[in-house]
Amino acid sequence: MAQKKIYNDDPFRLLGLDHQPALDSIIERYSTELLAYIRNIIIDPELAKEILFDAYQKLWENRKAIAAMERPLAWLYKCARFQSLNVLKREKRRFTIGLDQLTPSQAPGIMENDIDIKELKKEIQAAVNRLPPQMQLVYRLSREEGLNRKQIAEKCKVSESTVKNLITGSLKQIRKFMNSRIKLLLL
């Protein structure tokens, strides 16, 4: 009798019994807050709804395992988060253009106040040239030669985490340099 009450109170447990109304109950109960959680990561409301739907689909596909979990709601949130982050990564890859591939015709309206693409490239190169030698090397291998972290680590004989830290550090320094240059140009 106590077990039956737990199942009645917890629709996640009923999922393990292939109980479709339990999924409907979960959707009704958690959709608003889960969608708000996704919208903190994904700005596009339609895309956020797709991710929510995908999270519920994964919930149904993994219902047997999830029914046995101690914290199934936490799993659902984690699933939504990972799917949101995957979408962001995919979108970032889709819209990332290499610096050498950027031309004025591809970037109308980006350059203002008589600054053109060539000038921007020069500024970025100046920022890269100011980096410490190891950061410079890792940045160039990553951004200019297109090597991944593992390849850079092997080539430079350092760990992948060191490569990651060097890339992160170089990007911060370049960003800082570029921000200071932009402020000077706006004065």
Question: Helix and strand layout, with pairings?
Answer:
Blueprint: H1 2-9, H2 11-15, H3 20-39, H4 45-61, H5 63-67, H6 72-95, H7 117-129, H8 133-144, H9 149-156, H10 160-186
Helix pairs in contact: 3-4, 4-6, 7-10, 8-10, 9-10
Task: Please tell me about this protein's structure.
With about 190 residues, the protein is mostly helical. The chain has two domains: about 1-95, RNA polymerase sigma factor, region 2, helix turn helix motif (Rna Polymerase Sigma Factor, Chain: A, Orthogonal Bundle); about 100-185, Arc Repressor Mutant, subunit A, CATH 1.10.10. The chain is about 75% helix and about 0% strand. The chain contains ten helices and no strands. Helix 3 packs antiparallel against helix 4, helix 7 (about 115-130) packs across helix 10 (about 160-185) and helix 9 (about 150-155) crosses helix 10 (about 160-185).
